[in-house]
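Hi all, long-time lurker, first post. I run a small reading group and we've been trying to get comfortable going from sequence to structure in the token notation. Rather than ask abstract questions, I figured I'd post a concrete chain and ask someone more experienced to write out its structure so we can walk through it together at our next meeting. Sequence below, copied exactly:
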Amino acid sequence: MRENFFSPIAKDYARFRPAYPTELFEYLASMAPGRRLAWDCATGSGQAAQSLALHFEHVEATDISEELLAEAIPHARVRYRKADALSSGLPGHSVDLITVANAMHWFHGEAFASEVRRVLVPGGLIAAWGYAFSSITPAVDKLTRRVHNEIVDPFWIAPNRIVEHGYKDLYFPFIEIPPPTFSMVSHLNLHQLEGYMRTWSASQKYLKQHGTDPIGLVHKELEAAWGEPALVRPVNWKLNVRIGRA
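-- Answer (accepted) --
Happy to help. Here is the structure in token form:
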């Protein structure tokens, strides 16, 4: 089950986590058997739910964190509510599409798969995706990898490794559909990049144990590699998508 350690940083999570490509949601909507209801499971602060609302009549966006849900932007077609991924409270065979954005690694397993099968309509679709590493410039990438792979490495746990491995190890007992390749690009300044890195679960654990911001340990080097901190650079993310029918 996903730990609730994102709640204390809910505002930063909403500010600094990247948005997902519009093409992803267009594709999923085109593959779903209908467009009446989508369930965005573990919605966090609603990044994916907002995009789903452009394609579906209604979106149920659930999460275990009330703090994250409080940061979500209201939308007429989205209902945000607290619910466990393993017990959604949704009627049986009512959902056309389930999405799990960068979160299924926290609760994947047969219990969640059973809930997926229970709520999906016949031919319904589930899509889960994760992203781990970004590409900016070789000098910046070297420093972000140092934080990820060395400084906070002891604080990553097994679910995080599933993301690192490109979601290949995700428990996904569905009839798989090979996804297209989606380009995921953000445009960030240095403050925003460092803010994103501070939302890593391992960064929060490091801070709690050592009382030191792990990103601050490389800030001066990052600043030298980045250039003017206000400079906005393109950030290319490796997005790994699994799509299937129950």
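A couple of things your group might point at:
The mean pLDDT is 95.
The beta strands are 37-41, 58-63, 78-82, 95-101, 120-135, 175-176, 184-188, 233-245.
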